Amino acid sequence: MQIKQQLMIGLKAGFVMGISLFITGAIAAYIFYGPAMAPAGKFEADQMNPLYFIWTKLAIGIVFGIFFVVLYERLPLHHRIKGIADGVKYASVLWLAISLWNLSHPFVYEFHKTNWYNELFWHIYTLGGFLGYGITVGYLYRKVVSDLT
């Protein structure tokens, strides 16, 4: 696959990832933290600006969306993404690897001090983003594969 195609797929999937992060984050924040939508004392009232949160999620999603597609294209895999299920598998493996890494240090070094409630929030929040990413990558790769045949 050409680098231009990789960048476009990564850009589109990253955009959806950002939107998924925003939506999942808003829902999970409301469930976990109530109407304040953040742990007590984390933000000042003027910092709870939805436009700030949406553009940062979009920026994060686009950067990592492109990075993960370019990374995927460099991997020597026998089975390539051919549809949505494969895209979700790829995104789930990424999410799991990142999540286990993020859990490893608090679990080993600060188990008694770690706020597991916040950890659960962050893992649900990122899972939503990665699922949106995986669905979009799978859909876009399916289109590329069908265009090639």
Description of the structure:
This protein has 149 residues and is an all-alpha fold. Helices cover 77% and strands 0% of the residues. The protein has helices at residues 3-33, 50-74, 84-109, 116-148. The two termini are 14 Å apart. Helix 1 packs across helix 2 (50-74), helix 1 (3-33) packs antiparallel against helix 4 (116-148) and helix 3 runs antiparallel to helix 4. It contains four helices and no strands. The protein has one domain.
Quaternary structure type: single chain
H-E order: HHHH
Parts with pLDDT < 50 across at least 5 consecutive residues:
none
Number of folding domains?
1
Helix content: over 70%
Please state roughly what percent of the residues sit in beta strands, choosing from under 5%, 5-15%, 15-25%, 25-35%, 35-45% or over 45%.
Answer: under 5%
- Rounded average pLDDT: 87
- The outline comes out as globular
Largest sheet: none
What is the overall number of helices? Answer: 4
Strand runs, count? 0
Span of the ends, CA to CA: 14 Å
Structural class: mainly alpha
**How big is the Rg?**
17 Å
Supply the key terms:
77% helix; mainly alpha; 149 residues
Short note summarizing the structure:
The protein has about 150 residues and is mainly α.
What is the secondary structure topology, with strand pairs?
Blueprint: H1 3-33, H2 50-74, H3 84-109, H4 116-148
